[in-house]
Design goal:
The structure is a single chain. It is built from four helices and no strands. The chain has 131 residues and is mainly alpha-helical. It has one domain. The longest helix is centred in the last third of the chain and has 29 residues.
Length: 131
């Protein structure tokens, strides 16, 4: 489980962290109000680890299969949708002057649950696939 968690964390550091760092520049190109920039960075910093850990589960399940890339997309993309919705809702609420906290709190809970449970699920899938 620890190895899976470390690999997913390494994936996040190489893909998610640069995205979080580039978020203010992306916010400027999207013409977001300045008040929404911290919420954009926060939602990306909170949501992207969950996406990396979900990808670890999908990669573990499809290990060794032919055309695993297609199956990985079919399995994992529907699981990404709630994180994307809550992250987008957080930024949209902040940009519209509303309260972004409800969507951000849901994103925090979802991401924490995924990060806590994904290493166990991915390790179990790896054990089954490596028999």
């Amino acid at each position: 489980e620890a190895l899976v968690a470390l690999k997913a964390l390494a994936h996040w550091v190489t893909t998610g962290l640069p995205l979080v760092a580039a978020a203010p520049l992306l916010g400027v190109t999207l013409n977001l109000p300045a008040a929404a920039f911290p919420w954009l960075v926060a939602s990306l910093a909170i949501g992207t680890p969950g996406l990396s850990f979900l990808g670890a589960i999908g990669a573990s399940v499809t290990l060794g299969l032919r055309r695993s890339g297609l199956l990985l997309s079919i399995l994992v993309l529907p699981l990404y949708i709630p994180s994307l919705i809550f992250g987008a809702r957080t930024v949209a609420s902040a940009a519209e002057g509303g309260d972004p906290w409800p969507a951000l709190l849901l994103l925090i809970g979802l991401s924490l649950a995924i990060v806590a449970l994904a290493p166990f699920a991915a390790a179990a899938a790896l054990r089954v696939n490596l028999r």
